[in-house]
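Side project, low priority. Logging it here so it doesn't get lost.
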Amino acid sequence: MKVRQISVFLENKNGRLAEVTRLLGENNINLRAVSIADTADFGILRLICDKPDAALKLFHENNFTAKETDVIGVIVEDKPGGLAHVMDICFKNNVNIEYLYSSLMSHENNAVEIFKVEDIDHGLEILEKNGIKAIGKF
């Protein structure tokens, strides 16, 4: 199952992240996973939320540059080596991971990791064949 991620491009200036999170909160949109990467001039906020359509519309209405991308939400055993096990499966099966980050939520006492892979359908197929569960909604 694919998960809808929203990427928001932000100027790297004081208050921009506060503005985004305030907009989400004021519109009753709950974050499920979040990551931010920055350079000297801008940042990319990647997020998973409970209402992606509403969030994307909200960002566009408030003049944020935002786009949607499909990613994979993977259930990982919350124990030492849990993520390494999944990484080994990906490596051995040529699943190229572009980036990953952790969810703010857990699933049945397990961690949830968000993966952006080069070929999402191939990635999902390999994970499923190897008994790794993916989730589609948060």
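Brief comment: The chain has a mean pLDDT of 91.
Revisit when time allows.
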